[in-house]
Amino acid sequence: MHKSPRAGREGDVLAVVSQSGPTVSFFDAASDLHLGDVQVPAEPHELCFDPTRRLLWCTLTYHSGYYHANGGRRTELAVIDPDTRRIVEIVDLAPEHGPHGLALDAASGRLYVSVESTDDRPGGVVLIDTETRRPRGRIDTDAPGPHWFAIDPAGRRGYATNKEAPFVSIADLERGTLTAKVEVPGSEGLAVSADGTHVFVAAPYGNFAGPAEERPPTGIRVIDTRTASVVDTLPTADIVLPVHLTSTGRLLAGEVRMDPDPASRLGRHAPGRLTVFCADTRKQLGALEVGLFPLTITSSPDGRLAYVACVVSSTVDVVDLETLDRLARLDIDRLGEPGAHGLAYIPRPV
């Protein structure tokens, strides 16, 4: 008999950003019960949980809107206590702005935050000391809009995807320098393999303007970190934005699907797709339909459950990765605007 995917999750919590809320909502991971919300300044995007200090970091990216269509870029991060559900501090990174991607090296107490370019310097990654909650340095990425950032398990290398720039930036985190660029046709989400030897990158950039047949082939580029080169592509039917690797080696990709619409050059949003690959064999294991415009994916620490935040439908699909069944769909509060975005799974206090 299969163990229930909900077993043993009592006390665990799922945190979800509503970028138009603007809120961070908390749900019981065993029952999906809505536990409450934290109001945050506009406009929250991504989340990262620090288990050492039991704090939740939230990027406040724009005053309104989204990448390339916003009401101005913010400069702050919200630090939240997920147990008491209150804001502990607002950390201002000014003059850095447009903070978005988050990656934590818990062992060294380093949090990395991607930031957009300014008039006098390219986009980059800001290093924050998680004890003092203050910036300690910056690494340039030589691109205007590094949006997602990931680090290898050893905390030695970092990888920034760049929407418009035709490369992935590789940084030496110990030296704080950019060391290589890997050619890809613009890129979105990414994940690093458990042994640090490969990086899985969604490409091309999610630009839906123009005929699909004129865009580069969609899929996940596989980068060999030893040679800093693309060695394989996992094909997908549609453009991929979020990429996530579970603790059990499943590679999850969120495909954005658009139907033709005579009234819109971009088309009409159709249900998205969660596509599952085996990271080791690079074979597709299956797929299932999710909400509109999947933008963020995370998973439970045991790798059994996936959570897919879909910003246009403002929903989170809870998926059993053993059976590829959808167990629940969480509705995230919004104000008539796109909502669900960043996710974080928070284990109960020990």
Automatic annotation (TrEMBL):
Recorded superkingdom: Bacteria
Annotated signal peptide: none
InterPro entries: Host-pathogen_enzymatic-act, N2O_reductase_N, WD40/YVTN_repeat-like_dom_sf
PANTHER family registered for this protein in UniProt: DIHYDRO-HEME D1 DEHYDROGENASE, PROTEIN NIRF
Annotated protein name in UniProt: Putative surface layer protein
